[in-house]
Amino acid sequence: MLFSQVVSLTELMAGVKAEPKTTQIFQITCWPLGHKVPTSTNALVELMNMVERWRQRSTYGPVIVLSTNGKSRVGVYCAACVAIEQVIQHGEVDVFQAVKTVRRHRPQLVENMTEYKYCYDLVLHYVLHYLNSL
């Protein structure tokens, strides 16, 4: 199950004089603490789809991905996004290159085989369940 909440960016940045902007916060709840990957590929694909729909309705601003330790969950999400973008844009995927792309900017991302394999599983889930609906 996913939980979302809309808050004003100016509420988060007290004292900043700027045009008010709205941000959307998405949280995945089927990723228990201590687990290297979520318990479901469907939930993370749905989260990615929700983020993309939000970006299309807004002004395509940046997406900020957070995790408690700043690396493990971030890497899985970002690598999976890159891999799915490859599928959408090119009709093929190279998960190794997707992981390599995110690791080029932050070497600590996707640091074990469980996370790496999950990226493959997630792309497979996406191709089997969502690709035909594009």
Work out the number of β strands. Answer: 2
Fraction of helical residues: 40-55%
**Largest beta sheet: strand ordering:** 1-2
How are helices and strands ordered from N to C?
Answer: EHEHHHH
Largest sheet geometry: 2 strands, antiparallel
What distinguishing features does this structure have?
single chain; 134 residues; mainly alpha; two-stranded antiparallel ribbon; 10% strand; protein tyrosine phosphatase activity; Tyr_Pase_cat; Protein-Tyr_Phosphatase
Please tell me about this protein's structure.
- The structure is a single chain.
- With 134 residues, the chain is mainly α.
- The chain contains 5 helices and 2 strands.
- α3 crosses α4.
- The longest helix is centred in the middle third of the chain and has 19 residues, at 72-90.
- The radius of gyration is 16 Å and the shape is globular.
- The model is unreliable at 1-7 (pLDDT under 50).
Could you give a short description of this structure?
By secondary structure, the protein is mainly alpha-helical. It has helices at 9-12, 41-57, 72-90, 95-105, 113-129; strands at 2-8, 22-28.
